[in-house]
What we know:
Distance between the termini: 27 Å
Number of strands: 10
Domain NADH:ubiquinone oxidoreductase-like 20kDa subunit: 95-197
Low-confidence stretches: none
Order of helices and strands: HEEEEEEHEEHEHEH
Cofactor: [4Fe-4S] cluster
Strand content: 15-25%
Family: Belongs to the complex I 20 kDa subunit family.
GO molecular function, one term: 4 iron, 4 sulfur cluster binding
Protein name: Formate hydrogenlyase subunit 7-like protein
Amino acid sequence: MKNWWFIRGLRKGVMTEKYPKEIAEWSTEIQGEGNVNCPTNAIEDGKWIKERCVFCRRCYPSYKPNFNPRIYTVKKTEPIFRKSFYLYPIDSGTCGGCNMELKLISSPEYDMTRFGIFFTNTPRHADALVVMGVITEKMKEVLKKAYEAMPQPKVVILLGACAISGGIIGEGVPLEAVVEIPGCPPNPFTILEALTKVKGK
């Protein structure tokens, strides 16, 4: 992605993008038809199942991305978080991709703080637990303790196909999620918009 937003920001004082001009196509909704050999069964009976897709492109050219990045699911909103929304990220076993994309939403290009979204380094101050990666046996107790330490109201956000469905190598996280953000990894814009939806915006 060409960072023209940065140069424009220096010249005109505009620091963030209202809407990204370029979005990675293989992190958007996929459409097509026919049967394909999908390693995660993300395509069944000609239907794309976003929660399972790792965007490996084995379905191409029968299936192609349509550049719609709004592939998240938000089951409910919490208006109490409108002024501030604190996230506690926890890696239960990732390749690092989801971590990098989540970190990007704090960059000047996306600037999550303008929406009142912040990171916190303790679950005791968190409104949302952001879980990335497949679940591993040793992380089950860690996740449980982190969730129990959070004050009410609290939400669980599953970030990436691994956390939601287990991806290729494991099992999904066994927590009831308010937000599911598919992708391998998800696009920063998709992550940021899903988070603002939780806040009721």
